[in-house]
Amino acid sequence: MASMFNRRKMIYEGKAKILYEGTEPGTYIQYFKDDASAFNGQKKATIAGKGVLNNRISSHIMTKLESIGVPTHFLRSLNMREQLVRQVEVIPLEVVVRNIAAGSMCKRLGVKEGTILPNPVIEFYLKKDELGDPLVNEQHIFTFGWADPFELEEIIGQTYRVNDYLNGLFAGIGLRLVDFKLEFGRLWGEYDELYIILADEISPDNCRLWDAKTNEKLDKDRFRHDLGNVIEGYQEIAKRLGLVPQGGLISDGAFDEKLAEGLEEIDNELARERRLRAVNKTPPKSPRGV
Ligand code: AIR
Ligand code: ASP
């Protein structure tokens, strides 16, 4: 699939996405692959249609977050599998928020899956595949300079806002937001002011979402634990968000690319409103000039 875009300069290829140089200065094109990986890349597969659904879901959620004032790297959706995003300097942390115990929290602490936490718990992991993304604390973050106290305060504040907003959004469509992972980046403004920007994606690849009535898992855990019907789970989330027609995009058990191509417009209202500014007029200096 990606071969048709070979003329473009590839900036970075990750496990589920590819970044290409963007169409304007200070931008990248974020391409969503159908590849899935789990357990630090030990388990791999291709899930036909995943890229299309994640692109739609993430575009929609990022747009909603922008509209409540959370700055994100998302600029606009370009096509089925691609979106235009701002270039940011990656902060090498995975910020996980947990509302209900699941996954590694249960393993690490022996808590029963499904335990409702009395308050959301934020955890930080260092983004480093070779080390399996280890859990780190604030002191590690400051000591090794991955973020400074001002940046971390901003990250935590934005993370709580995202959690509050997403809890409401998903509750409204009968889904429980169990946990999710965010990534942030730095962007410098015209006067060299620093912005902390939500980056990466928000999709069933990095959120645990359970049906509110049955607790059925609809997210990437279906792939991680071989529960089957992975794409059906993702599609269900997209359907409830109103991003896919009720008839769905799966025919005869297979994801129908042709049907998906028909769904052009996603959520570009904000992008239309907000003239695309030439971002990064001055290229970022080395970490905050410190
Ligand atoms: N996550 C963490 N690293 C990669 C991802 N996608 C997400 C998971 C889950 C949450 O962070 O998808 O929603 C917590 O993951 P875990 O494995 O620490 O329980
Ligand atoms: N995507 C990550 C990996 O490949 C982690 C996960 O989602 O389980 O390891």
Structure summary:
With 290 residues, this protein is an alpha+beta fold. It contains eight helices and 17 strands.
Molecular structure report:
The protein has helices at residues 50-67, 103-109, 138-143, 149-171, 221-224, 230-240, 257-261, 269-273; strands at 10-13, 17-21, 27-32, 35-38, 43-46, 74-79, 82-86, 89-90, 93-100, 116-126, 135-136, 175-182, 184-188, 194-198, 207-211, 250-251, 254-255. The chain is α+β, with helices and mostly antiparallel strands and 290 residues long. The chain has two domains: 2-87 and 230-273, Phosphorylase Kinase, domain 1 (2-Layer Sandwich), CATH 3.30.200.20; 90-211, ATP-grasp fold, B domain (D-amino Acid Aminotransferase, Chain A, domain 1), CATH 3.30.470. A hairpin with a 5-residue loop joins strand 13 (184-188) and strand 14 (194-198). The structure holds 5-aminoimidazole ribonucleotide and aspartic acid. 5-aminoimidazole ribonucleotide (AIR) binds at residues 94, 96, 102-105, 179-181, 205-208, 220. The site of aspartic acid (ASP) has 8 residues, from strand 4.
Would you spell out the secondary-structure blueprint of this structure?
Elements: E1 10-13, E2 17-21, E3 27-32, E4 35-38, E5 43-46, H1 50-67, E6 74-79, E7 82-86, E8 89-90, E9 93-100, H2 103-109, E10 116-126, E11 135-136, H3 138-143, H4 149-171, E12 175-182, E13 184-188, E14 194-198, E15 207-211, H5 221-224, H6 230-240, E16 250-251, E17 254-255, H7 257-261, H8 269-273
Helix pairs in contact: 1-6
Bound molecules: 5-aminoimidazole ribonucleotide (AIR) and aspartic acid.
The site of aspartic acid (ASP) has 8 residues, from β4.
